[in-house]
Design a protein that fits this description.
By secondary structure, this protein is an all-beta fold. The protein is built from no helices and eleven strands.
């Protein structure tokens, strides 16, 4: 049996004083359901400056298609590795959400701001097997 994680809401951008002629409003509706068989919540306490790596491939979690990272404290650098390789480091301050239907994530690496204790919460979503 699978669970469904749903990212919902909207993004808008408009001038601060109404909609002047020729200035379009940009809006994107978010409604992205992601079917998952497992959605573990992990918490990492970054109490040293060395990067912390979580290898999904070598854990009971396995490769995942949904990743949400939230930070309590200053920003962290997030590196995500998928079956296609390593992505560039991305700052997370305070939230990052990434999902991929075709190339599962296999590990993450978190690097804190030097000398600052940081708590990082991670939700992973594992795509159900196709039959």
């Amino acid at each position: 049996m699978s669970n469904i994680l749903t990212l919902s809401g909207s993004i808008t951008s408009a001038p601060p004083l109404g909609l002047p002629s020729g200035a379009p409003e940009v809006m994107a509706n978010l409604n992205q359901p992601v079917s998952v068989t497992n959605a573990p919540n992990l918490q990492f306490t970054l109490d040293a400056d060395a990067p912390v790596t979580f290898d999904m491939d070598g854990s009971p979690v396995g490769p995942c298609s949904f990743l949400m990272v939230s930070v309590q404290g200053p920003s962290v650098l997030l590196e995500v590795t998928s079956e296609e390789g390593t992505l560039q480091k991305v700052p997370v301050d305070p939230l990052a959400i990434v999902f991929s239907q075709t190339s599962p994530f296999t590990s993450i690496r978190l690097t804190r701001t030097p000398s600052v204790l940081t708590i990082v919460n991670v939700i992973l979503g594992v795509k159900p097997p196709t039959s």
